[in-house]
Amino acid sequence: MNVTTAASGSTDRRAATVAMACLGVFVAYLPITTVAVSLPAIQRALNTSTAQLSWVQDAFVLPMAAFILTAGVFGDVHGRKKVFQAGLFLSAVGALVALCAHNIQTLWAGQALAGLGSAALLPTTLALISHAVPDFRERGKFIGMWAMALLAALAVGPVIAGVVLDHYSWRWIYLLSIPLSLLALAVAAPLLTDSRAPHGRKLDWPGQITAAVGVTALVYGVIEGGADSFTSAKVVAALALGIIALGAFVVAERRSASPMLDLAVFRSAAFTATALIALITFLGLIGFFFVLSLYFGMVQQLGTLEAGARLLLVPVAAIVAGAPAGRLMHRVPARRMITVGLLLIAGSLLAMTNLDAGTSYGSIAWRLIVLGVGLGLVTTPMTATAVAAVPHHLAGMASAANNAFRQVGGALGPAVLGALLSTRAVDTLPGHLADAGVTGGQAHAIVATAKEGGLGAVAGMNLGSKAGQVYAALGDSLIDGMRLCLIVAAGLVLVAAVCGVTLLRRPQQAAAAPARGAGEAQQAPMGAPTENVGAAGPAEPLGHRRG
After folding, report:
1. What span, in angstroms and rounded, lies between the C-alpha atoms of 51 and 226?
2. Does the predicted TM-score (pTM) go above 0.90?
3. Cα of 355 vs its chain's centroid, Å
4. DSSP 3-state of 116
Protein backbone atom coordinates (compact mmCIF):
# COMPACT_ATOMS: atom_id res chain seq x y z
CA MET A 1 0.00 0.00 0.00
CA ASN A 2 2.84 2.36 0.92
CA VAL A 3 4.68 1.50 -2.29
CA THR A 4 1.55 2.22 -4.32
CA THR A 5 1.00 5.51 -2.52
CA ALA A 6 4.61 6.55 -3.08
CA ALA A 7 4.41 5.67 -6.78
CA SER A 8 1.18 7.64 -7.12
CA GLY A 9 2.76 10.63 -5.39
CA SER A 10 5.78 10.43 -7.68
CA THR A 11 3.51 10.34 -10.73
CA ASP A 12 1.56 13.34 -9.47
CA ARG A 13 4.77 15.26 -8.87
CA ARG A 14 5.98 14.47 -12.37
CA ALA A 15 2.67 15.57 -13.88
CA ALA A 16 2.80 18.82 -11.90
CA THR A 17 6.39 19.43 -13.03
CA VAL A 18 5.56 18.89 -16.69
CA ALA A 19 2.46 21.11 -16.41
CA MET A 20 4.47 23.90 -14.77
CA ALA A 21 7.22 23.58 -17.37
CA CYS A 22 4.68 23.88 -20.20
CA LEU A 23 3.03 26.89 -18.58
CA GLY A 24 6.44 28.46 -18.02
CA VAL A 25 7.52 28.18 -21.64
CA PHE A 26 4.08 29.48 -22.71
CA VAL A 27 4.64 32.58 -20.56
CA ALA A 28 8.18 32.95 -21.95
CA TYR A 29 7.13 32.94 -25.61
CA LEU A 30 3.77 34.74 -25.42
CA PRO A 31 5.23 38.28 -25.74
CA ILE A 32 7.07 37.48 -28.99
CA THR A 33 4.19 37.33 -31.48
CA THR A 34 1.79 39.38 -29.33
CA VAL A 35 4.08 42.39 -29.48
CA ALA A 36 5.29 41.77 -33.05
CA VAL A 37 1.85 42.26 -34.62
CA SER A 38 1.11 45.25 -32.35
CA LEU A 39 4.11 47.35 -33.40
CA PRO A 40 2.17 49.61 -35.83
CA ALA A 41 -0.35 50.46 -33.10
CA ILE A 42 2.46 51.13 -30.61
CA GLN A 43 4.18 53.41 -33.12
CA ARG A 44 1.03 55.46 -33.65
CA ALA A 45 0.24 55.70 -29.94
CA LEU A 46 3.73 56.66 -28.73
CA ASN A 47 4.73 58.60 -31.86
CA THR A 48 8.04 56.78 -32.22
CA SER A 49 10.58 56.65 -35.02
CA THR A 50 11.21 53.44 -36.94
CA ALA A 51 14.55 52.97 -35.15
CA GLN A 52 12.92 53.39 -31.73
CA LEU A 53 10.16 50.97 -32.68
CA SER A 54 12.62 48.27 -33.77
CA TRP A 55 14.06 48.24 -30.25
CA VAL A 56 10.70 47.34 -28.70
CA GLN A 57 11.13 43.75 -29.90
CA ASP A 58 14.90 43.76 -29.57
CA ALA A 59 14.73 44.95 -25.93
CA PHE A 60 12.99 41.64 -25.19
CA VAL A 61 15.12 39.36 -27.37
CA LEU A 62 18.55 40.71 -26.41
CA PRO A 63 18.48 39.92 -22.66
CA MET A 64 16.78 36.63 -23.40
CA ALA A 65 19.58 35.58 -25.76
CA ALA A 66 22.38 37.00 -23.59
CA PHE A 67 21.39 35.51 -20.23
CA ILE A 68 19.94 32.08 -21.05
CA LEU A 69 23.24 30.32 -20.36
CA THR A 70 23.69 32.27 -17.12
CA ALA A 71 20.18 31.31 -16.00
CA GLY A 72 20.94 27.66 -16.71
CA VAL A 73 24.00 27.78 -14.45
CA PHE A 74 22.12 29.57 -11.67
CA GLY A 75 19.48 26.84 -11.82
CA ASP A 76 22.10 24.11 -11.64
CA VAL A 77 23.81 25.75 -8.65
CA HIS A 78 21.01 27.37 -6.64
CA GLY A 79 18.06 25.21 -7.67
CA ARG A 80 15.98 25.20 -10.82
CA LYS A 81 12.73 25.81 -8.94
CA LYS A 82 14.08 29.10 -7.56
CA VAL A 83 15.22 30.30 -10.99
CA PHE A 84 11.90 29.18 -12.50
CA GLN A 85 10.00 31.22 -9.89
CA ALA A 86 12.30 34.21 -10.47
CA GLY A 87 11.59 33.98 -14.19
CA LEU A 88 7.84 34.01 -13.59
CA PHE A 89 8.16 37.00 -11.26
CA LEU A 90 10.27 38.98 -13.76
CA SER A 91 7.82 38.14 -16.56
CA ALA A 92 4.91 39.48 -14.49
CA VAL A 93 6.78 42.64 -13.47
CA GLY A 94 7.95 43.27 -17.03
CA ALA A 95 4.41 42.90 -18.38
CA LEU A 96 3.11 45.27 -15.68
CA VAL A 97 5.74 47.91 -16.49
CA ALA A 98 4.96 47.65 -20.22
CA LEU A 99 1.22 47.81 -19.56
CA CYS A 100 1.69 51.09 -17.65
CA ALA A 101 4.17 52.59 -20.15
CA HIS A 102 3.41 56.07 -21.50
CA ASN A 103 6.68 56.54 -23.37
CA ILE A 104 8.96 54.35 -25.45
CA GLN A 105 11.74 54.21 -22.84
CA THR A 106 9.42 52.71 -20.19
CA LEU A 107 8.18 50.19 -22.74
CA TRP A 108 11.78 49.18 -23.47
CA ALA A 109 12.34 48.67 -19.74
CA GLY A 110 9.26 46.46 -19.43
CA GLN A 111 10.28 44.41 -22.45
CA ALA A 112 13.81 43.98 -21.07
CA LEU A 113 12.49 42.73 -17.71
CA ALA A 114 10.18 40.28 -19.49
CA GLY A 115 13.14 39.14 -21.62
CA LEU A 116 15.16 38.42 -18.48
CA GLY A 117 12.21 36.43 -17.16
CA SER A 118 12.08 34.38 -20.35
CA ALA A 119 15.84 33.79 -20.15
CA ALA A 120 15.29 32.27 -16.69
CA LEU A 121 12.29 30.19 -17.77
CA LEU A 122 13.54 28.56 -20.95
CA PRO A 123 16.49 26.47 -19.65
CA THR A 124 14.92 25.68 -16.27
CA THR A 125 11.68 24.34 -17.76
CA LEU A 126 13.55 21.79 -19.86
CA ALA A 127 15.92 20.93 -17.01
CA LEU A 128 12.96 20.35 -14.66
CA ILE A 129 11.43 17.93 -17.18
CA SER A 130 14.75 16.15 -17.59
CA HIS A 131 15.03 15.71 -13.81
CA ALA A 132 11.43 14.56 -13.43
CA VAL A 133 11.68 12.09 -16.35
CA PRO A 134 15.20 10.57 -16.25
CA ASP A 135 14.37 7.88 -18.85
CA PHE A 136 15.26 9.71 -22.06
CA ARG A 137 13.05 7.40 -24.17
CA GLU A 138 9.99 8.42 -22.17
CA ARG A 139 11.23 11.98 -21.88
CA GLY A 140 10.69 12.61 -25.60
CA LYS A 141 6.91 12.56 -25.12
CA PHE A 142 7.06 15.22 -22.42
CA ILE A 143 9.52 17.38 -24.34
CA GLY A 144 6.96 17.16 -27.15
CA MET A 145 4.39 18.65 -24.78
CA TRP A 146 6.87 21.41 -23.90
CA ALA A 147 7.44 22.17 -27.57
CA MET A 148 3.67 22.25 -28.20
CA ALA A 149 3.24 24.78 -25.38
CA LEU A 150 5.94 26.93 -27.01
CA LEU A 151 4.16 26.76 -30.36
CA ALA A 152 0.79 27.42 -28.71
CA ALA A 153 2.15 30.69 -27.30
CA LEU A 154 3.29 31.71 -30.78
CA ALA A 155 -0.14 30.74 -32.12
CA VAL A 156 -2.39 32.64 -29.72
CA GLY A 157 -0.21 35.77 -29.58
CA PRO A 158 -1.44 37.32 -32.87
CA VAL A 159 -5.06 36.45 -32.09
CA ILE A 160 -4.87 38.03 -28.64
CA ALA A 161 -3.27 41.14 -30.11
CA GLY A 162 -5.88 41.33 -32.88
CA VAL A 163 -8.80 41.13 -30.46
CA VAL A 164 -7.25 43.67 -28.08
CA LEU A 165 -6.34 46.17 -30.79
CA ASP A 166 -9.82 45.99 -32.31
CA HIS A 167 -11.47 47.00 -29.02
CA TYR A 168 -8.93 48.44 -26.56
CA SER A 169 -5.59 50.22 -26.25
CA TRP A 170 -2.42 48.43 -27.36
CA ARG A 171 -1.11 48.27 -23.78
CA TRP A 172 -3.68 45.61 -22.81
CA ILE A 173 -1.83 43.02 -24.90
CA TYR A 174 0.38 42.59 -21.81
CA LEU A 175 -2.46 41.84 -19.42
CA LEU A 176 -2.66 38.04 -19.90
CA SER A 177 0.98 37.47 -18.97
CA ILE A 178 0.47 38.89 -15.47
CA PRO A 179 -2.19 36.48 -14.08
CA LEU A 180 -0.60 33.52 -15.90
CA SER A 181 2.78 34.22 -14.32
CA LEU A 182 1.32 34.80 -10.86
CA LEU A 183 -0.85 31.67 -11.11
CA ALA A 184 2.14 29.53 -12.09
CA LEU A 185 4.18 31.13 -9.30
CA ALA A 186 1.54 30.26 -6.71
CA VAL A 187 1.03 26.69 -7.94
CA ALA A 188 4.75 25.96 -8.32
CA ALA A 189 5.54 26.81 -4.68
CA PRO A 190 3.88 23.72 -3.12
CA LEU A 191 3.88 21.32 -6.07
CA LEU A 192 7.16 21.73 -7.91
CA THR A 193 10.12 19.61 -6.80
CA ASP A 194 13.43 21.44 -6.82
CA SER A 195 16.55 19.99 -8.45
CA ARG A 196 20.18 20.93 -8.94
CA ALA A 197 23.15 19.62 -10.86
CA PRO A 198 24.58 16.81 -8.68
CA HIS A 199 28.21 17.22 -9.65
CA GLY A 200 29.16 20.34 -7.72
CA ARG A 201 28.79 22.99 -10.39
CA LYS A 202 29.89 26.50 -9.44
CA LEU A 203 29.14 29.94 -10.81
CA ASP A 204 31.47 30.80 -13.68
CA TRP A 205 31.65 34.59 -13.56
CA PRO A 206 34.28 35.07 -16.35
CA GLY A 207 32.21 32.87 -18.66
CA GLN A 208 28.92 34.55 -17.76
CA ILE A 209 30.28 38.07 -18.24
CA THR A 210 32.07 37.37 -21.53
CA ALA A 211 29.07 35.44 -22.93
CA ALA A 212 26.62 38.21 -22.04
CA VAL A 213 28.87 40.93 -23.46
CA GLY A 214 29.64 38.91 -26.61
CA VAL A 215 26.07 37.98 -27.47
CA THR A 216 24.74 41.47 -26.65
CA ALA A 217 27.40 43.25 -28.71
CA LEU A 218 27.08 40.87 -31.66
CA VAL A 219 23.28 41.05 -31.83
CA TYR A 220 23.33 44.83 -31.27
CA GLY A 221 25.83 45.25 -34.10
CA VAL A 222 23.75 43.21 -36.54
CA ILE A 223 20.51 45.00 -35.58
CA GLU A 224 22.04 48.48 -35.89
CA GLY A 225 23.92 47.50 -39.04
CA GLY A 226 20.70 46.38 -40.67
CA ALA A 227 18.91 49.57 -39.62
CA ASP A 228 21.77 51.95 -40.49
CA SER A 229 25.03 50.76 -42.06
CA PHE A 230 27.51 48.02 -41.30
CA THR A 231 30.34 50.50 -41.92
CA SER A 232 29.28 52.98 -39.22
CA ALA A 233 31.68 53.34 -36.29
CA LYS A 234 29.28 52.10 -33.60
CA VAL A 235 28.40 48.98 -35.61
CA VAL A 236 32.04 48.11 -36.35
CA ALA A 237 32.91 48.66 -32.69
CA ALA A 238 30.01 46.50 -31.49
CA LEU A 239 30.84 43.64 -33.85
CA ALA A 240 34.53 43.81 -32.93
CA LEU A 241 33.65 43.79 -29.22
CA GLY A 242 31.33 40.83 -29.77
CA ILE A 243 33.99 38.78 -31.54
CA ILE A 244 36.63 39.61 -28.91
CA ALA A 245 34.25 38.82 -26.03
CA LEU A 246 33.18 35.51 -27.55
CA GLY A 247 36.83 34.60 -28.08
CA ALA A 248 37.48 35.43 -24.42
CA PHE A 249 34.47 33.28 -23.51
CA VAL A 250 36.02 30.27 -25.26
CA VAL A 251 39.32 30.82 -23.45
CA ALA A 252 37.54 31.26 -20.10
CA GLU A 253 35.50 28.09 -20.55
CA ARG A 254 38.54 26.01 -21.51
CA ARG A 255 40.34 27.12 -18.34
CA SER A 256 37.40 27.03 -15.94
CA ALA A 257 37.10 24.19 -13.42
CA SER A 258 33.30 24.56 -13.59
CA PRO A 259 32.46 26.07 -16.99
CA MET A 260 29.10 27.62 -17.75
CA LEU A 261 29.17 25.88 -21.13
CA ASP A 262 31.51 22.92 -21.13
CA LEU A 263 32.90 23.01 -24.66
CA ALA A 264 33.30 19.24 -24.56
CA VAL A 265 29.55 18.93 -25.20
CA PHE A 266 30.31 19.91 -28.79
CA ARG A 267 32.19 16.62 -29.14
CA SER A 268 28.73 15.14 -29.44
CA ALA A 269 27.83 15.35 -33.11
CA ALA A 270 24.14 15.26 -32.14
CA PHE A 271 24.43 18.24 -29.80
CA THR A 272 26.46 20.23 -32.32
CA ALA A 273 23.90 19.46 -35.02
CA THR A 274 20.96 20.58 -32.91
CA ALA A 275 22.75 23.79 -31.92
CA LEU A 276 23.47 24.67 -35.56
CA ILE A 277 19.97 23.68 -36.66
CA ALA A 278 18.41 25.81 -33.91
CA LEU A 279 20.54 28.84 -34.81
CA ILE A 280 20.12 28.64 -38.58
CA THR A 281 16.47 27.60 -38.65
CA PHE A 282 15.25 30.26 -36.25
CA LEU A 283 17.33 32.91 -38.03
CA GLY A 284 15.44 32.10 -41.22
CA LEU A 285 12.00 31.46 -39.71
CA ILE A 286 11.73 34.41 -37.29
CA GLY A 287 13.04 36.67 -40.03
CA PHE A 288 10.43 35.19 -42.37
CA PHE A 289 7.59 35.92 -39.92
CA PHE A 290 8.79 39.52 -39.66
CA VAL A 291 8.78 39.87 -43.46
CA LEU A 292 5.42 38.11 -43.87
CA SER A 293 3.76 40.41 -41.33
CA LEU A 294 4.90 43.38 -43.45
CA TYR A 295 3.45 41.70 -46.54
CA PHE A 296 0.06 41.21 -44.89
CA GLY A 297 -0.01 44.74 -43.50
CA MET A 298 1.60 46.86 -46.23
CA VAL A 299 0.81 44.89 -49.39
CA GLN A 300 -2.49 43.17 -48.69
CA GLN A 301 -3.66 45.93 -46.32
CA LEU A 302 -5.00 43.49 -43.72
CA GLY A 303 -5.94 44.40 -40.17
CA THR A 304 -4.12 43.00 -37.15
CA LEU A 305 -6.71 40.31 -36.47
CA GLU A 306 -6.86 39.20 -40.12
CA ALA A 307 -3.08 39.03 -40.37
CA GLY A 308 -2.90 37.19 -37.05
CA ALA A 309 -5.46 34.64 -38.23
CA ARG A 310 -3.31 33.87 -41.26
CA LEU A 311 -0.11 33.61 -39.24
CA LEU A 312 -2.00 31.32 -36.85
CA LEU A 313 -1.95 28.58 -39.49
CA VAL A 314 1.78 27.97 -38.98
CA PRO A 315 1.86 27.20 -35.23
CA VAL A 316 -1.47 25.35 -35.35
CA ALA A 317 -0.17 23.06 -38.09
CA ALA A 318 3.07 22.68 -36.12
CA ILE A 319 1.13 21.62 -33.03
CA VAL A 320 -0.92 19.08 -35.01
CA ALA A 321 2.20 17.64 -36.64
CA GLY A 322 4.43 17.91 -33.58
CA ALA A 323 2.06 16.30 -31.07
CA PRO A 324 2.81 12.74 -32.25
CA ALA A 325 6.49 13.51 -32.93
CA GLY A 326 7.52 12.99 -29.31
CA ARG A 327 5.72 9.64 -29.17
CA LEU A 328 7.30 8.49 -32.44
CA MET A 329 10.87 9.30 -31.48
CA HIS A 330 11.54 5.80 -30.15
CA ARG A 331 10.47 4.36 -33.53
CA VAL A 332 11.50 6.93 -36.14
CA PRO A 333 15.10 8.21 -36.14
CA ALA A 334 15.37 11.86 -35.13
CA ARG A 335 17.54 12.53 -38.18
CA ARG A 336 14.74 11.51 -40.53
CA MET A 337 12.09 13.62 -38.81
CA ILE A 338 14.33 16.67 -38.60
CA THR A 339 15.52 16.38 -42.22
CA VAL A 340 12.02 15.84 -43.60
CA GLY A 341 10.74 18.76 -41.55
CA LEU A 342 13.48 21.09 -42.75
CA LEU A 343 12.89 20.10 -46.38
CA LEU A 344 9.17 20.84 -45.98
CA ILE A 345 9.99 24.25 -44.51
CA ALA A 346 12.40 25.08 -47.34
CA GLY A 347 9.91 23.92 -49.96
CA SER A 348 7.09 26.03 -48.54
CA LEU A 349 9.34 29.11 -48.39
CA LEU A 350 10.32 28.69 -52.03
CA ALA A 351 6.66 28.12 -52.96
CA MET A 352 5.83 31.53 -51.49
CA THR A 353 8.17 33.38 -53.85
CA ASN A 354 5.32 33.76 -56.37
CA LEU A 355 3.02 35.63 -53.97
CA ASP A 356 1.75 39.02 -55.09
CA ALA A 357 -0.70 41.63 -53.85
CA GLY A 358 -3.71 39.72 -55.16
CA THR A 359 -2.81 36.22 -53.92
CA SER A 360 -5.86 34.64 -52.31
CA TYR A 361 -6.07 33.41 -48.73
CA GLY A 362 -6.49 29.80 -49.87
CA SER A 363 -3.39 29.98 -52.03
CA ILE A 364 -1.32 31.29 -49.14
CA ALA A 365 -2.90 28.95 -46.58
CA TRP A 366 -1.60 25.65 -47.94
CA ARG A 367 1.95 27.00 -48.06
CA LEU A 368 1.75 28.14 -44.44
CA ILE A 369 0.29 24.79 -43.37
CA VAL A 370 3.16 22.90 -45.02
CA LEU A 371 5.62 25.20 -43.27
CA GLY A 372 3.91 24.55 -39.95
CA VAL A 373 4.00 20.78 -40.44
CA GLY A 374 7.73 20.99 -41.13
CA LEU A 375 8.27 23.12 -38.04
CA GLY A 376 6.36 20.61 -35.91
CA LEU A 377 8.53 17.75 -37.16
CA VAL A 378 11.71 19.69 -36.31
CA THR A 379 11.01 21.30 -32.93
CA THR A 380 10.41 18.28 -30.69
CA PRO A 381 13.16 15.91 -31.94
CA MET A 382 15.66 18.78 -32.14
CA THR A 383 15.08 19.72 -28.48
CA ALA A 384 14.94 16.13 -27.24
CA THR A 385 18.13 15.21 -29.12
CA ALA A 386 20.02 18.16 -27.63
CA VAL A 387 19.10 17.11 -24.07
CA ALA A 388 19.70 13.39 -24.68
CA ALA A 389 23.04 13.94 -26.41
CA VAL A 390 24.83 14.83 -23.16
CA PRO A 391 25.08 13.10 -19.77
CA HIS A 392 22.01 13.46 -17.57
CA HIS A 393 23.65 15.83 -15.08
CA LEU A 394 24.36 18.29 -17.93
CA ALA A 395 20.72 18.47 -19.08
CA GLY A 396 20.36 22.03 -17.75
CA MET A 397 23.47 23.15 -19.60
CA ALA A 398 22.34 21.45 -22.83
CA SER A 399 18.85 22.93 -22.72
CA ALA A 400 20.22 26.40 -21.92
CA ALA A 401 22.74 26.21 -24.77
CA ASN A 402 20.15 24.96 -27.28
CA ASN A 403 17.76 27.74 -26.30
CA ALA A 404 20.59 30.29 -26.44
CA PHE A 405 21.42 29.31 -30.03
CA ARG A 406 17.72 29.43 -30.89
CA GLN A 407 17.26 32.90 -29.43
CA VAL A 408 20.42 34.31 -31.01
CA GLY A 409 19.09 33.09 -34.36
CA GLY A 410 15.69 34.56 -33.57
CA ALA A 411 17.26 37.90 -32.68
CA LEU A 412 19.41 38.00 -35.81
CA GLY A 413 16.62 36.90 -38.17
CA PRO A 414 14.57 40.12 -38.35
CA ALA A 415 17.75 42.21 -38.46
CA VAL A 416 19.38 40.25 -41.30
CA LEU A 417 16.29 39.63 -43.41
CA GLY A 418 14.89 43.08 -42.60
CA ALA A 419 18.09 44.65 -43.95
CA LEU A 420 17.86 42.52 -47.10
CA LEU A 421 14.19 43.44 -47.52
CA SER A 422 14.83 47.18 -47.13
CA THR A 423 17.86 47.21 -49.43
CA ARG A 424 16.15 45.27 -52.20
CA ALA A 425 12.88 47.19 -51.90
CA VAL A 426 14.57 50.61 -52.03
CA ASP A 427 16.74 49.53 -54.98
CA THR A 428 13.70 48.50 -57.04
CA LEU A 429 11.44 51.37 -55.91
CA PRO A 430 12.49 53.91 -58.60
CA GLY A 431 11.60 51.47 -61.37
CA HIS A 432 8.20 50.65 -59.88
CA LEU A 433 7.46 54.37 -59.36
CA ALA A 434 8.29 55.05 -63.00
CA ASP A 435 6.04 52.17 -64.11
CA ALA A 436 3.24 53.67 -61.99
CA GLY A 437 3.67 57.09 -63.60
CA VAL A 438 5.37 58.78 -60.63
CA THR A 439 8.47 60.60 -61.84
CA GLY A 440 10.50 63.76 -61.35
CA GLY A 441 10.95 65.51 -58.03
CA GLN A 442 8.19 63.59 -56.28
CA ALA A 443 9.79 60.25 -57.16
CA HIS A 444 13.19 61.45 -55.89
CA ALA A 445 11.62 62.67 -52.63
CA ILE A 446 9.84 59.34 -52.11
CA VAL A 447 13.02 57.32 -52.71
CA ALA A 448 15.02 59.60 -50.39
CA THR A 449 12.40 59.23 -47.65
CA ALA A 450 12.38 55.43 -48.07
CA LYS A 451 16.18 55.30 -47.80
CA GLU A 452 16.17 57.46 -44.69
CA GLY A 453 13.21 56.11 -42.72
CA GLY A 454 12.13 52.89 -44.46
CA LEU A 455 9.16 52.16 -46.68
CA GLY A 456 6.71 52.87 -43.87
CA ALA A 457 7.92 56.48 -43.66
CA VAL A 458 6.54 57.16 -47.13
CA ALA A 459 3.01 56.78 -45.77
CA GLY A 460 3.54 59.97 -43.75
CA MET A 461 4.28 62.05 -46.85
CA ASN A 462 1.79 64.29 -48.63
CA LEU A 463 1.37 62.24 -51.79
CA GLY A 464 -1.58 64.12 -53.27
CA SER A 465 -3.40 62.59 -56.19
CA LYS A 466 -0.62 60.07 -56.81
CA ALA A 467 -1.12 58.30 -53.48
CA GLY A 468 -2.69 55.21 -55.08
CA GLN A 469 0.13 54.81 -57.59
CA VAL A 470 2.78 55.33 -54.92
CA TYR A 471 1.26 52.72 -52.61
CA ALA A 472 1.08 50.25 -55.48
CA ALA A 473 4.75 50.87 -56.28
CA LEU A 474 5.66 50.46 -52.61
CA GLY A 475 3.80 47.15 -52.53
CA ASP A 476 5.61 45.89 -55.63
CA SER A 477 8.97 46.92 -54.18
CA LEU A 478 8.23 45.20 -50.89
CA ILE A 479 7.26 42.01 -52.77
CA ASP A 480 10.63 42.12 -54.55
CA GLY A 481 12.36 42.38 -51.19
CA MET A 482 10.20 39.63 -49.72
CA ARG A 483 11.08 37.25 -52.55
CA LEU A 484 14.77 37.77 -51.91
CA CYS A 485 14.22 37.13 -48.19
CA LEU A 486 12.25 33.95 -48.91
CA ILE A 487 15.06 32.61 -51.09
CA VAL A 488 17.67 33.43 -48.43
CA ALA A 489 15.53 31.92 -45.66
CA ALA A 490 14.99 28.75 -47.70
CA GLY A 491 18.74 28.55 -48.33
CA LEU A 492 19.43 28.84 -44.61
CA VAL A 493 16.96 26.05 -43.84
CA LEU A 494 18.59 23.83 -46.48
CA VAL A 495 21.98 24.47 -44.83
CA ALA A 496 20.39 23.34 -41.55
CA ALA A 497 19.15 20.20 -43.30
CA VAL A 498 22.67 19.46 -44.51
CA CYS A 499 23.93 19.87 -40.92
CA GLY A 500 21.31 17.38 -39.79
CA VAL A 501 22.13 14.79 -42.45
CA THR A 502 25.87 15.18 -41.90
CA LEU A 503 26.07 15.32 -38.10
CA LEU A 504 23.06 13.26 -37.00
CA ARG A 505 24.69 10.20 -38.46
CA ARG A 506 24.05 6.59 -37.56
CA PRO A 507 25.70 5.27 -34.39
CA GLN A 508 27.18 2.42 -36.41
CA GLN A 509 28.95 4.90 -38.63
CA ALA A 510 30.53 6.62 -35.66
CA ALA A 511 31.55 3.29 -34.15
CA ALA A 512 32.94 2.00 -37.42
CA ALA A 513 35.20 4.98 -37.93
CA PRO A 514 38.84 3.92 -37.40
CA ALA A 515 40.35 5.19 -34.18
CA ARG A 516 43.12 7.72 -34.68
CA GLY A 517 44.19 8.15 -31.09
CA ALA A 518 43.12 8.57 -27.54
CA GLY A 519 41.36 11.86 -28.24
CA GLU A 520 38.85 10.23 -30.54
CA ALA A 521 38.39 7.31 -28.20
CA GLN A 522 37.29 9.72 -25.52
CA GLN A 523 34.97 11.46 -27.95
CA ALA A 524 32.96 8.37 -28.77
CA PRO A 525 30.71 8.17 -25.70
CA MET A 526 29.21 11.61 -26.25
CA GLY A 527 28.85 11.17 -29.98
CA ALA A 528 27.35 7.70 -29.99
CA PRO A 529 23.58 8.19 -29.93
CA THR A 530 23.41 10.67 -32.78
CA GLU A 531 20.83 9.53 -35.27
CA ASN A 532 18.16 8.47 -32.84
CA VAL A 533 17.43 9.29 -29.26
CA GLY A 534 15.18 6.34 -28.83
CA ALA A 535 14.91 3.94 -31.75
CA ALA A 536 16.19 0.43 -31.18
CA GLY A 537 16.80 1.35 -27.56
CA PRO A 538 20.34 2.76 -27.52
CA ALA A 539 21.68 3.47 -24.07
CA GLU A 540 21.67 6.98 -22.70
CA PRO A 541 24.93 8.85 -23.39
CA LEU A 542 27.76 7.81 -21.12
CA GLY A 543 30.01 9.82 -18.87
CA HIS A 544 31.26 13.23 -19.74
CA ARG A 545 34.94 14.02 -20.25
CA ARG A 546 36.42 17.44 -20.62
CA GLY A 547 39.36 17.94 -22.90
Report:
1. 11
2. no
3. 25
4. helix
